[in-house]
User: What shape does this take?
Amino acid sequence: YMGRSYRTPTMSSESAIRRLNTITSSIQAQPCSQFSHVNEAPPDEIFKTGIMYRADKDSRKVDLGVGAYRTNEGKPYVLSSVRKAEELIHNNTSLNKEYLPIDGDATFNKLARELLFGKESPAIKENRIFTCQGISGTGSLRVGAEIVASMFPKGTNVLISKPTWGNHMSIFSHARSGVPTKFYRYWDAKGRKLDLSGLLEDLKNAPDRSVVLLHACAHNPTGVDPTKDQWNQIAQLMKQKNHMPFFDIAYQGFATGDLDEDSWAIRHFIEQGFEMIVTQSFAKNFGLYNERVGALHLVCASDKIAAAVLSQVKILIRANYSNPPAHGARVAAAILGNPALLAEWKQELKVMSGRIIEMRKALVDELKRLGTFFHFYCLVGR
Assistant: This one.
């Protein structure tokens, strides 16, 4: 500096070290990350409820989270038919741990298809239905959403009931490019019944060739299902609009105790000439919650079309989870393919579904006694 002396300030070694440590700590506290812009998402409400339930020490607690069957003691229940099937699998030394095919266990697929559509289904005999083993209902729905995203015209809407299962919207929104969704009216809160007129009006006003997501039985969360006459009205309107049915069935046999009755709507739509997508879960009716067993079915206009679509679906699966796990599918197949175990499983289904009905009635009776009443009698399967 011209004309004036200048001396650089000095810093003691101790001060320099303290300052260096402060800077270093600041850098360590805020590391450079490619994910620094990502915000923490809120926990899933259903699974969070389960965590809170298990942590709660109050003996009066009631688990209102995941819809899983429980004993009178509130304990998980493993079906007797499932335990016997697992014993058969354990003792079968011919089984191995090799990869399953992309579309899963062929025996399981055949039996799951017959369970849902009926052994005598003309569509099965004509080879117009193909089946892929899925990762329970959720994974099967996700593959179904990818089918809509990749094989339907861009912008095709998926119409979903209001209300619906909490995961439906997320599954379709996370499919490739996001599948656009819209609600159709379903629950008449004032009348506490199905809003059939609103449902039909919304389907009528939707663009032609929309995809309509339908709960085949035990609608989640209302528990209110259309009557057979109402199903027929829905089918006739959808036929006029060329809408594609996308059935989600998670409670076959668990809703009424009758496997054929719970799949009636699906079979009726096939009789009406529809092509359709169907996702099937074995979590509830077999109690195989953590085995993630399910199936995706496509009903096509011809066997040639079914073969072509299956080849493309395999590509979607290969890029997703490659192929499904074996154990749960083997358990289900061992039961469905064994007459004695099949009869035992059907009886267990009737016991479980009947107990749910009895517990619901007991709850309503107690609410009445307390001077409170909710309309539960029309609900099924939940």
Remarks:
- The chain is about 45% helix and 10% strand.
